[in-house]
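Methods, example record. To illustrate the input and output format used throughout this study, we show the complete record for Pseudouridine synthase. The sequence lines were provided to the predictor; the line carrying structure tokens was produced by it.
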Amino acid sequence: MDKNFIVFETNRLDKFLASQIDASRNQIEQLIKKEYVKVDGKVVSKTGLKLKENQNIEVHFPEAELNPKKDENFVKESLKDKNVQIIYEDNDILVINKPYNLTVHDAPSVKDATLVDWLKLNNISLSTLSGEERHGIVHRLDKGTSGVMVVAKTNQAHVGLSKQLEDKTMGRYYLAIIDMPLKDNIIIDKPIARNSNNRLKMSIEENGRFAKSAFNKISLNDKENFELIAAKLFTGRTHQIRVHLSSINRHILGDNLYGFKGELNKINRFYLHAYYLYLTHPMTNKQMSFKANLPNDMDEFLNINFQKENINDKLNENDIVSNFNTFI
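The corresponding predicted structure is encoded as:
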């Protein structure tokens, strides 16, 4: 899709486009740097280019396509055991339940097919404002985290959802099973940065980025050595829940990277699940919420180790939200 504009007064290219296109500054910058913008028919890549009156600006919004570096058969084979469940879909947004062990988007270290590949393989219309590797992606989950995500199908929806992330009117509640009960509901406010000794990890660092999480006790297991908890994020740092729990000597079952040790260290995943998402529909302004059912293995673990009837009562999403409201 292409759009054309006429410059009516001198301006910088990026500032002009910001006044004409409903997109964030970063998204406009990416369009220019990836050479999707022409000035008087010539491709430009300088965001601060000075424009003159009556110049013609053409912006190309690329269609989302399968990554040409990945063979389609390879993508299909890589995704064959990945059960991505569609919770809701309309012309503007898609809400899914992402399985664990599926990376959301490409990065230099990613070799397997991603959620973005799955979306493209299934011919789902996607926004293109976040660059080729992140078509449709507004927010993300770690590879090992399962649960609810919203995907933008149009650029206009992408802008609206991104604004909600910034002003905190969209958010998620998570469920986790930890190896030692919390003493009480707790808010952790500790800065996070990349671990200087292990680039795969994040850690609490004095000069890190501000990070704030809240944790709510839900239920103890029968032996009272594990606990099901809920988590709410006020910021979106990499591995934030895992790092903050580790900082108080609590670990998600199976999370060997952040210190979990014990008889369950061979479960091949960590029990962290994005359970509940709330947002405002970017086009209709309707308040919406979605719940992603627990993956089978996590649900089975609860069945075996917890009183299931008690758990079912406490997993009501409205009650979880209400419980957080008592201490945050």
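Annotations derived from this record:
The chain has a mean pLDDT of 90.
The two ends are 45 Å apart (CA to CA).
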